[in-house]
Amino acid sequence: MPSKFEPQKHHRRSIRLPEYDYSQAGAYYVTIVAWRRECLFGEVVNGEMKLNRYGEIVQWEWLELPKRFQFIELGAFVIMPNHAHGILIFRPIVGATRQGLTVTRAGETPLLPTNTDGIDGSPLPRGPKPMSLGAVISQFKPRVTKRLWKFPSLNGTPIWQRNYHEHVIRNERDLQNTTNYIESNPMMWGEDDDNPLNIKP
Question: Are 76 and 30 contacting, i.e. CB atoms less than 8 angstroms apart?
């Protein structure tokens, strides 16, 4: 049985590894948190996540990532009431560039590197390395924000905390531990540090 996965120890401390190339092939665990940890995306009922219409949009955009970035595969992921966890697998590219594998639908603006350090997840002038993990997340967040802002109740309201948390998955054991943690997240919601009931004033 895999050892206990400790998200605080293995993930939340890291923002970026110095000198690490986040565009290279590998598996990356990502956590994105809602602004002020507000429970925007649904609720956990009897250990099962029930997405609302906002959460369904977040999930839809996540599922679209492999269609928009053809070098990406999705591992385990979960949309929680106020955050999302997911594993993104970057496949090695042979005889092509990642830029050449970015696709857009008819009428869409081509994807460009942006930065989502703004409090609402909106793009800022400077951005991360193209086709890197940062570039993928910095396009995912504003796409969700743009769609959620179409709801009058959310229009202009910050959706995401700035930046995101990541962990470079090192081996199969690490991958299994991370997968176990993601899949069990709804059942552990009562003890989750992001659960508003567990946040001390």
Answer: no
Distance CA 174, CA 54 (A): 31
Distance CA 56, CA 62 (A): 10
Least confident of 39-43, 71-75, 125-129: 125-129
Residues 6+ apart with CB under 8 A from 118: 124, 162
Question: What pLDDT, in 10s, does the model give residues 103-125?
Answer: 444 444 333 333 444 444 444 44
- Please give the helix or strand (H or E) that residue 173 lies within, else none: helix 172-184
Architecture of domain 7-186: 2-Layer Sandwich (3.30)
CB 89 within 8 A of CB 75: yes
What are the E-state strand segments in the chain? 26-33, 42-45, 48-51, 72-79, 83-90, 165-169
Q: What is the pTM of this model?
A: 0.77
DSSP 12-65: IT-S--TT--TTSSEEEEEEEEBGGG---SEEEETTEEEE-HHHHHHHHHHHHH
